[in-house]
Amino acid sequence: MRQKLVAEFLGTFMLLFGGVGAIVLTATGTLDAGLLGIALGHGMSVMFMAYSVGNISGAHFNPAVSFAFLLLRRLPAKEFIGYTLAQLAGASSAMALLYFLLPEAARKVNYGTPGFFAGLDWSRALTVEIICTLILTFVIVRVGTHQANPGAPLIVGLTIATLIFAAGPLTGLMLNPARAFGPTLFSGEWKDHWVFWVGPLIGAALGAFTAEFLKDRNHAHA
Fold first, then answer.
1. For residue 109, which of 187, 31, 188, 195 has the smallest C-alpha distance?
2. Considering the chain, what percentage of its residues have pLDDT values greater than 70?
3. CA 6 to CA 169: how far, in whole Å?
4. Residues 8 and 65 sit within 8 Å (Cβ to Cβ)
5. What is the pLDDT of residues 186-217, one digit of tens each?
6. CA–CA separation, 179 vs 168, rounded Å?
7. pLDDT value at position 57?
8. Do 155 and 44 touch, CB atoms closer than 8 A?
9. What is the DSSP string of 131-164?
10. In the chain, at which end, N or C, are there fewer CB atoms within 10 A of the end residue's CB?
11. Distance of CA 148 to the CA centre of its chain
12. How many CA atoms lie within 13 Å of 27's alpha carbon, on the beta-carbon side?
């Protein structure tokens, strides 16, 4: 259990250090990552860490993904709680390091905190998070059904990058409550924080059940 929690901590730490780090570095003027670079920063961070520790914990790095596997009875409730706490700790630690290294740049980009951009209200922002997390979770569950799939981390990483590239300008596109929690812990903007928990959790549940439904259909026609 300890190894799993450390793996989830490290994976979530790298997700924020690589993803939010790309946003923060852009603010310094030393890196012009752009939306594509930021999307790849998130996706590649997950990919690298999934290859590194996926065989230990399953490479969730996301409370919403852990919630999906809890609903599918592939993750015990005790481990779900432990995973979530480890993920939140990893996210917070990554933000603390970024703030220590580049405090002015971190403040300039509001620590990578999510929000309602492009004129969205909370209902539209919630919809964006639900739909995109549904897609991500669907991919994770379906790819994960293939035993020893060496391409799974690459597929998941590219899915994350694609979704952020497509919808990042709308909310920042969290897909992940831990990704929202770390930055908000430093910015203090808690008013709409619930959207970035409720949206991903609903999306993860829908994605997981959709993936399971298709798996059953495939088995029925096998």
1. 187
2. 95
3. 32
4. no
5. 999 999 999 999 999 999 999 999 999 987 55
6. 13
7. 94
8. no
9. HHHHHHHHHHHHHHTSTT-TTHHHHHHHHHHHHH
10. C
11. 22
12. 17
Averaged pLDDT, 115-139: 96
pLDDT digits (tens, 9 = 90+) for 60-75: 999 999 999 999 999 9
pTM over 0.90: yes
Q: What size, in residues, is the chain?
A: 222
CA–CA gap between residue 188 and residue 180 (Å, rounded): 11
Query: What does residue 118 show for φ and ψ, rounded to 5 degrees?
Result: 55, 30
Domains of the chain: 1-214 (1.20.1080.10)
Who's near 128: CB < 8 A, 6+ residues apart?
A: 120, 167, 170, 171, 173, 199
- Contact 174/57 with Cβ under 8 angstroms? no
pLDDT digits (tens, 9 = 90+) for 21-55: 999 998 888 777 799 999 999 999 999 999 999 99
Local confidence band at 220 (pLDDT 50, 70, 90 cut-offs): very low
Angle at 70 between CA 67 and CA 75, to 5 degrees: 120
